[in-house]
């Protein structure tokens, strides 16, 4: 099952954010997406998950496109994708337990045969894997930033999706918590053989975790290669971004 | 001149887009209500929150408006006619036709509509609505349909209680300030079935429109807390405008119907 985007275009009003983007993520592959602010990284993530419609091109999952499908018709594709949102997007009115149970209950609504006992077991497993079993009955506003990220991770992976998107998983976190978050992401990928796309500009923690890195700049993917190739990139914006130099096009 | 034309054109396009968005949300909500994919417990919870928390606010407003209106009406009637026998029945007719549903609607738009816009707007800017969609939950089923049913129940119940309270306060004011006997004031002789139908019709329409417009304002909120603030303001303004437009439309419809029936 491969996730692929071809000839992807998107814009806000008359302003084109990017055009003719093409990328694919294979199962078990961890891809890092970097780029300056407002390059459209989060928008690309939403296009890949069918939350936004591209102005051109299409996104396919295992050959099936999101294009032309209603919200209800998209869910059979979307259920294979987990998403950790930039600010976690935990539901304020639900406890951490119910937040993590939410995707499983959605599967039940869609006809999957999962009984409440199985839901309970899987939620507890997911919470235990991120070290939040004791916080199950707390509400999101009672947790710290790092705990919210871990709860978001548990919710994103509880259904064992084939792909997982992580939007700035370590933004605003201390180095120790960041390392823990990446360890959890790697554990999920290794356990479930899922593909992952991680948006982050914290290269110190992102690059060791990735098999491949993409850089989005000025409406195009200007780099695609291994983390080792990043600093040797010929594109001046990529080189500047990788080295953090003051001089350059950025 | 060109800049002004561009501005007017952009505003017209924006208004048209907003109207299309609202229309789309309306049909999606109707479909959701027909499919019955919302949870009943949420309807009850929202209805309790909307009605219970608005009751005091509504009664205070209705009470003051009732007092002022009856005082002014009695004062003018005493000065010009010297006869106040029709004050009570005419006031009740006005309460049922206009004051209770419309002033009640405007108050609910302020109290409940603003709350809905802020809640959904906040969910929108924090990506909780995207998270709902990622998890196979239609935001209209989860957020709009239960609030609309709760809005209709709230508007009907608060409209009835508000009308009764306003009439009661009016009667007490007329008795205290102008010695109008209760038996003269509390007279329902002018009320016709069409007046009651108009009242119920307005309550149902406002109860539907307020959550719908407020939810739409929340869904189109952008940015952070500033976007949520704008959505709240926008919701109150748009709900008020829609209420006044429907007030005119429904009022005119029943006026024509009354004439036709004779």
How would you portray this structure in words?
The complex is a heterodimer of chains A (250) and B (262). In chain A, a hairpin with a 2-residue loop joins strand 1 and strand 2 (15-25). The two termini of chain A are 36 Å apart. With 250 residues, chain A is α/β, with parallel strands linked by helices. In chain A, the strands form 2 sheets. Chain A has a 6-stranded mixed beta sheet with strand order 6-7-8-3-9-10, sandwiched between helices. In chain A, strands 2-1-4-5 form a 4-stranded antiparallel beta sheet, with no helix packed on it. In chain A, helix 3 crosses helix 4 (116-129), helix 4 packs across helix 5 and helix 5 runs parallel beside helix 6 (175-192). Chain A has 9 helices and 10 strands. With 262 residues, chain B is mostly helical. Chain B has 8 helices and no strands. Chains A and B meet through helix 2, strand 6 and helix 3 of A and helix 4 of B.
* Integer-rounded radius of gyration of chain A: 18 Å
Structural class of chain A: alpha/beta
Instruction: Give the number of helices of chain B.
Output: 8
Give the helix proportion of chain A (percent range). Answer: 25-40%
Which strand-content bin applies to the residues of chain B?
A: under 5%
Distance between the termini of chain B: 53 Å
Estimate the strand proportion of chain A.
15-25%
Question: Ends of chain A: how far apart?
Answer: 36 Å
For the biggest β-sheet of chain A, the strand order reads 6-7-8-3-9-10
Radius of gyration of chain B: 21 Å
Low-confidence stretches of chain B: none
**What is the H/E order of chain B?**
HHHHHHHH
Helix content of chain B: over 70%
Oligomer: heterodimer
């Amino acid at each position: 099952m491969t996730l692929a985007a071809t000839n992807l275009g998107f814009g806000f009003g008359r302003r084109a954010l990017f055009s003719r983007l093409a990328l694919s993520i294979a199962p078990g592959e961890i891809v890092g997406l970097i780029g300056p602010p407002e390059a459209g990284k989060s928008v690309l993530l939403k296009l890949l998950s069918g939350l936004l419609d591209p102005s051109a091109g299409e996104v396919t999952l295992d050959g099936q496109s999101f294009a032309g499908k209603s919200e209800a018709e998209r869910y059979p594709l979307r259920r294979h994708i987990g998403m950790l949102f930039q600010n976690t997007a935990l539901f304020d009115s639900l406890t951490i337990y119910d937040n993590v149970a939410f995707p499983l209950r959605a599967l039940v609504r869609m006809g999957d045969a999962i009984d409440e006992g199985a839901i309970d077991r899987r939620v507890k497993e997911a919470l235990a894997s991120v070290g939040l079993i004791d916080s199950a009955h707390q509400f999101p506003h009672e947790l710290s930033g790092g705990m919210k990220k871990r709860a978001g991770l548990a919710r994103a992976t509880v259904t064992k999706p084939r792909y997982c998107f992580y939007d700035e998983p370590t933004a605003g976190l201390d180095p120790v918590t960041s390392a823990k978050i990446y360890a959890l992401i790697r554990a999920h990928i290794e356990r479930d053989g899922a593909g992952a796309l991680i948006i982050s500009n914290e290269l110190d923690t992102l690059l060791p975790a990735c098999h491949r890195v993409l850089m989005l700049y000025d409406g195009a993917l200007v780099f695609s290669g291994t983390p080792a190739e990043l600093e040797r990139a010929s594109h001046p914006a990529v080189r500047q971004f990788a080295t953090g130099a003051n001089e350059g096009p950025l | 001149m060109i800049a002004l034309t561009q501005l007017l054109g952009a505003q017209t396009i924006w208004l048209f887009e907003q109207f299309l968005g609202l229309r789309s949300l309306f049909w999606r909500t109707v479909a959701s209500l027909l499919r019955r994919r919302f949870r009943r417990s949420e309807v009850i919870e929202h209805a309790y929150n909307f009605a219970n928390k608005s009751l005091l606010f509504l009664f205070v407003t209705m009470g003051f408006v009732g007092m002022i209106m009856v005082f002014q009406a009695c004062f003018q009637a005493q000065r010009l006619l010297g006869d106040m026998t029709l004050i009570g029945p005419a006031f009740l007719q006005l309460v049922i036709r206009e004051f209770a549903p419309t002033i009640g609607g405007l108050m609910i738009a302020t109290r409940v509509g603003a709350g809905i816009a802020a809640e959904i707007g906040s969910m929108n800017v924090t990506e909780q609505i995207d998270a709902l969609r990622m998890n196979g939950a239609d935001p209209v089923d989860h957020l709009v349909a239960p609030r609309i049913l709760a809005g209709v129940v709230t508007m009907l119940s608060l409209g009835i209680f508000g009308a009764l309270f306003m009439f009661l306060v009016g009667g007490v004011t007329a008795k205290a300030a102008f010695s109008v006997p209760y038996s003269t004031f509390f007279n329902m002789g002018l009320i016709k079935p069409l007046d009651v139908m108009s009242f119920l019709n307005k309550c149902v329409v406002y109860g539907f429109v307020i959550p719908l417009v407020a939810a739409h304002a929340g869904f189109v909120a952008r940015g952070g807390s500033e976007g949520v603030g704008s959505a709240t303001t926008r919701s109150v303004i748009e709900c008020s405008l829609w209420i006044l437009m429907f007030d005119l439309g429904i009022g005119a419809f029943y006026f024509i119907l009354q004439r036709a029936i004779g």
